[in-house]
Design goal:
This protein has 2 domains: about 280 residues, Aldehyde Dehydrogenase, Chain A, domain 1 (3-Layer(aba) Sandwich); about 190 residues, Aldehyde Dehydrogenase, Chain A, domain 2 (3-Layer(aba) Sandwich), CATH 3.40.309. Helix content is about 40%, strand content about 20%. It contains 15 helices and 21 strands.
Amino acid sequence: MKQNLIDDIKAQTISPQFHLIDGKAAPASDGGEIDVISPIDGKKITTMAAGTREDANSAVSAARRAFNSGVWSDMAPKDRKKIMLKWAELVEAEALKLAVLGVRDNGTEIGMALKAEPGSSAGTIRYYAESLDKLYGEIAPTAPNRLGLIHKEPVGVVGVIVPWNFPMMIGAWKLAPALAAGNTVVLKPAEVASLSLLRLSALALEAGMPPGVLNVVTGAGSVVGEAIALSMDVDVLVFTGSGGVGRRLLEYSARSNLKRVYLELGGKSPQVVFADTENLALAAKTAASAIFRNSGQVCIAASRLLVEASIHDDFISEVAKHAEALKVGDPLDLNNDIGAVTSAVQLKQNLEFVDGAKTQGCELVTGGHQLHKDTGGFYMEPTIFTHVSQTSDLCQKEVFGPVLAVSTFTSEDEAIHKANDTDFGLSSALWTSNLSRAHRVTRRLKAGVVHVNTYGGAEVSMPLGGVKQSGNGHDKSLHAFDKYLNLKSAWIAL
């Protein structure tokens, strides 16, 4: 029955999409459009507005007017909470439609999309809605003739730039706490995955969010994203994406109003498997899932696997069996395990990494090829390389595709050295039955997240953020509010 519903939704025509500015749908100021190409079959499914700098500036102006008016920032917390809870309800009521819309846009397998996109988004919105009326200020310890008050206030206008792999989930991680804290927002979705975020934002209006509080401008990052980042009227900018873009955003902050910039820049996350692991079969299955789900297009994807040398051959054989058993195909077919690569550009980049790994001496175990080329869609085999040196591109650079780099170690110190020996530090994992080792290695791994005998699945109550060149600041948990609140000290003579 669910497959029939999915097929019915898939068959529906998608109308041309426009910006959302000051509560109204708006075409690009110059009438420009972008064709939306589905990675399922390479066909055009609709168009969306190709945003201009003028569009971005209009959205920022709308957000500033809404903030300064106090229509949202001065609204009683219980009333903001009511609107956000209603927003979460509307997302849940439309979950399957939202999931299918997103899959048609970015190719994530529907089983994962339904849970990770509308399911996760609704939960995140509800979490911050329930939290917003519990953000207390403080009274500082002072002399009896002085009163020190510490107020927490919304920062103002927040610029949000999100990627294409999980647009609703990552979008909600940023939108929900920013809005819950009383800010207004200008959102720039990825060019190749804007549809679900446009609908998510429209549902916020339906829930009662005032016009101008949440604005969305679609289009090229080099135009719309740059305009938002250079705006003198954006107070905070949050971004998930590549390191190259993140560096430019920091430059734009310096060239404009020194807005605070918080970046999540991906990673090259390692899983370290020790020979004393109690359940090696589970570790092998998890290792495959941690890199191949969503065709490897996951920020925390465990794209490096470090295996103790004494178990390497048997363990990698087991991982390869799981990889080869995964069915890759139409992401809206419930019989498939893995969907499409999001774009032709990303698929080409993935295959170039495969060719480069071969020339650098890495040994191909399985995969490495494009699949279903005849469909017009963008599909790739789960791919595993062994004998990956620490200096190879496959070890040091983020592929963002279904490619696993495997190497070995013979001691705990060597494992930690190799795990930490990249510019990134977003996520990591270790597998062991030794409790002392688990605590030792957790402390020594240079990563914002460490998984022990598992991978992924952390709840919204746990912070997600990286170290080194994986970025700064945290999404998720109550710590996310720190990015969207100013502290004001009031020093009062009694």
